[in-house]
Design goal:
By secondary structure, this protein is an alpha+beta fold. It has 5 helices and 14 strands. A 5-stranded mixed sheet has the order 2-1-5-3-4. Strands 8, 9, 11, 13 and 14 form a 5-stranded antiparallel sheet that branches. A hairpin with a 2-residue loop joins strand 8 and strand 9.
Length: about 250
């Protein structure tokens, strides 16, 4: 007598590809600027990080300080990824030729034309223009600095700088804002970031300008590598503020 066995269907996990982008010191630890990896469908940001940590254990030391972005927007660790997504891994940020028609926010690879930016923000109704000019100095903690190298996750950096400009305009009594950050190699004395704020009154212009640079240094993914006579290091960044999603809340 023949036995009839039930039909068994074997289901295997389906895979998808996502692009992982490494910024700052994470690039050196991983050995990549970016890479495509295969993961199971339904994988989250945290799942991908865990997998990368198994492969490169040194990444785990940044578990509590890394922020994550998916497709150019900050995203929490439980975000479910889809085929073709770009996942950026962001260590704490280090904050760090234009023309008269300069855009409100920019990243540039040539010297910042600070005079043109200051002129572009000025209007007859303004009583004050507050300026911040971040300049490359020749030393850090007693070590002689040779030059700096800035890199940015530019799509997200520009988006974040635009959001900062919007918030400054809405939270302070200011009329206009310009933010320009340079990337690439900078020599001693070069301007790395320049901010201009125009307002009817000086107090609002000062307050907005200080808030902009302090917040930019904590939230905008721009990274600084310092080159000394005896080596090079990525500059330590301040912890991300609570509103930015991180791998470990």
């Amino acid at each position: 007598m023949a036995l009839s066995l039930p039909h068994l269907t074997l289901r295997y996990p389906r895979c998808m590809r996502v692009r992982v982008l490494y910024l700052g010191i994470l690039k050196e630890l991983s050995g990549h600027d970016s890479e495509w990896i295969d993961v199971e469908e339904g994988s989250t940001v945290r799942d991908v990080w865990s997998r990368l940590g198994e492969r490169v254990p040194r990444l785990s030391q940044y578990q509590r300080s890394v922020a994550t972005a998916v497709n150019h927007s900050y995203a929490p660790a439980n975000t479910v990824l889809s085929e073709g997504d770009e996942l950026a891994l962001l260590p704490p940020v280090s904050g760090g030729a234009s023309s008269a028609s300069v855009a409100r926010v920019e990243t540039v690879r040539t010297p910042i034309d600070t005079a043109a930016i200051a002129a572009s923000v000025r209007a007859p109704e303004d009583g004050a223009v507050a300026l911040f000019d971040g300049v490359v100095r020749n030393n850090t903690r007693g070590r002689k600095t040779l030059y700096l190298d800035y890199e940015a996750y530019e799509e997200l950096a520009l988006k974040q700088m635009n959001e900062l400009a919007d918030k400054a305009l809405s939270q302070f009594a200011v009329r206009d804002v310009r933010i320009v950050h340079r990337v690439g190699r900078l020599e001693i004395g070069d301007s790395s970031v320049f901010i201009a704020v125009a307002s009817a009154h000086r107090a609002a212009a000062f307050d907005a300008c200080r808030w902009l640079i302090d917040t930019l240094k904590k939230t905008v993914p721009i990274y600084k590598k310092e080159y000394f006579e005896d080596g090079a290091v990525w500059a330590d960044g301040d912890p991300f503020p609570p509103e930015i999603p991180q791998l470990t809340p």
